[in-house]
Amino acid sequence: MNYMMSEHMGEQGMKYGVNYCKNEIFKRALSLIKEAVQGEKKDEMEYQNLIKMAPTKEQKEIITSIRDNERDHRKWFKEIYRCYTGQNIQDEDYRHKKYDKCNKYDKEEKPKSYIEGIKDALFGELAAVEKYRLIMMGLPYGSCRDLVFHILTDEIKHAIKYNYILTINLCRGKDKMRCSYDECLNIDDVYIPEQF
What CATH number should be reported for the domain holding residue 154? Predict the structure, then answer.
């Protein structure tokens, strides 16, 4: 068993030499890392569909860069998990797997439209930020925790890029790029997941 030694804030103040392997927050972080590996794989496949649907070279390049980051994130999460547990995480086979409301389509199913796919990707990135914050909070200080911070900030950048793509597509056909909010979109047309 791998014992991680680090500072830990508890109800009684600073504790040194905490056995993180017995810490419930640490165990939860490891469980979330396993979920993150599968989530990054699912995102990579969904983004591949968006690349095929993208209307411009610029948008294809942006989504391709995000997809490539997701591949790196999956690899890094596997390395982090192996660092703490000595075990490998296997990728699930997504060909026959159906997803719940948050992860709503499998490998073969495409979004109803490009815009719908971009909106799903945007909110997926924001949900990943929330999950990765929990992972980061559960890990001891050190290079693995720093790597999770790197992944988390990448997810924020991805959300910003998807927001850019959404904006330029919703404002397409307008006389000017700087259209008003009401001109760009009807708020009734936007799906916002309940968690936000």
Answer: 1.20.1260.10
Residue 59 resides in a domain: yes
Question: Residue 13 is inside which H or E element, if any?
Answer: strand 13-15
Residue with tokens 């060909």: 95
What tokens were used for 82?
Answer: 């192996």
Output the six-digit token pair for 190.
């936007």
| Domain membership of residue 114 as a residue range | 22-189
Q: Mind listing the pLDDT tens digit for each residue in 88-120?
A: 998 775 544 444 444 444 445 678 899 999 999
What gap in Å lies between CA 16 and CA 156, rounded to an integer? 32
Q: Taking the mean position of all CA atoms in its chain, how far away is CA 174?
A: 32
Closest among 107, 110, 115, 112 to 54, alpha carbons compared: 115
Span 66-80, pLDDT tens digits: 999 999 999 999 999
Q: Shortest CA distance to 123 belongs to which of 187, 51, 196? A: 196
Assigned domain for 195 exists = no
The b-or-e profile of 27-36 (16+ CB within 10 A means b, else e) is eebbebbbeb
Average pLDDT over residues 12-37: 76
